[in-house]
Amino acid sequence: MSVSDLFKPLALLHGPEMRNRFMMAPLTSQQSEYDGSASEFDQLWIEQLSKSGYALIQTSAATVESGGIGFERQLGIHSDDHLPGLSKMAENIRNGGALSAVQLHHAGHRAVPAVGGIPAPASGHTVPGVKGLTTEEVERIRDNFIAAAKRAQLAGFDGISVHGAFGWILSEFLSPNLNDRKDRYGGSVENRARLTLEIIEGIRQACGPDFQIGWRLSIERYGLRLEELREITAEIFDRELIDYLDLALWDSAQVVREGTFKGKTLLSVFTELPRKAVRLGAAGKIYSGQRAAELLDEGCDFVLIARAGILQRDFPLQVKANPFFESPKMPVTAEYLRQGGLSERFIETMRGWQTFVRPGSR
Predict the structure, then answer these.
(1) Is 203 within the bounds of a domain?
(2) Report field, pTM of the whole predicted structure over 0.90
(3) Which residue, of 85, 100, 283, 356, has the greatest Cβ tally within 10 A?
(4) Cα–Cα distance for residue pair 178/127, rounded to 1 Å
(5) Per-residue pLDDT tens digits for 257-268
(6) CA–CA distance, 65 with 78 (Å, rounded to integer)
(7) Where would I find the H helices in 6-55?
């Protein structure tokens, strides 16, 4: 396909269509207030993105419980007190012509006590001295995901994305290495996927037929098994439980190194599945319009822009103006990011990303 295909609209199962094939990935910026309220810096970031030509913009990971926090200054959606700031974010995105989604997040066993997190492991052996969640506690977390989705709807967002990647709680429950439970949320693949499915189904029931549901999935680390994740995804596709799958890959060209699918790209393991009307997109080192177009050829319906969107806020507009546009090479200076409109809080976060900000730059 050509770069021009990236600018064709894409219908979703529920709610309005995407105006093109560019989705802004959820990016942890750590620039919210300490209570999880959206800060002026969050609003500035969203305002910039709303003018940048994306079809759908996801917020950074937002906590569904105060104890589920994984980062300092993480955005929250666990309280009605967060609604005013969230509503302003949704309004800005809507005024720019894009669809909007809140990424719903709980850190699970990776919750950070230093910033108020309460580790919530699936198993008792994961975090020394911390017992595994009881069945009732799992159900509480499930219900708080659903309540957070309803809160996003009240704030005016078109949908949510359920964060099931990177060893956070839903990814943790999917992992046979991190989940040795004996109740209905552990053991078989079906049981380990139960929490994710109950959250997705509960959100659909609570938020109705016009609300959009995405699911972010990663495949690597944390004892996750590719064959099992493919099986779970196949069921979700077949039942059309979500509007879109967001494959969080470190590299969209990654190749499977062992097992059943050795030699295939990770992406192809999922694009080859029948997916009915569910849409599929991928993130992972997409730094040019040409690479984005290649991913459509490789079976994606849309692409998720992450680091490239930090480097150049209006990446879609740059690609539209120049099909051969490529992102600036990393690392960049802090001043480059500052001139582009990034807040000092966001820049400090990016210093923690390997090879992103030039060491020692001010």
Answers:
(1) yes
(2) yes
(3) 100
(4) 10
(5) 988 999 999 999
(6) 5
(7) 40-50
Query: CA angle 247-250-253, nearest 5°?
Result: 80
| DSSP conformation class of 110 | G
Burial class of 254 by CB neighbour count within 10 A (0 to 12, 13 to 18, 19+): middle
Domain hosting 168: range is 3-328
Instruction: Find the farthest-apart pair of alpha carbons in the chain and give their distance in angstroms, rounded.
Output: 56
Is the CB of residue 101 less than 8 Å from the CB of residue 212? Answer: yes
Beta-bridged to residue 77, according to DSSP, are none
The Cα–Cα gap between 96 and 32 comes to 22
> How many beta carbons lie within 10 A of that of residue 161, not counting itself?
29
Tell me how many domains the chain contains.
Answer: 1
Q: Does residue 355 lie within any of the structural domains?
A: no
> Is the residue at 342 inside a domain?
no
pLDDT digits (tens, 9 = 90+) for 61-95: 999 999 999 999 999 999 999 999 999 999 999 99
DSSP letter for 242, please: -
Side-chain-facing half-sphere of 205: CA atoms under 13 Å: 10
Asked if residue 152 lies in contact with residue 86, where contact means CB atoms within 8 angstroms, the answer is yes
Q: Is residue 242 part of a domain?
A: yes
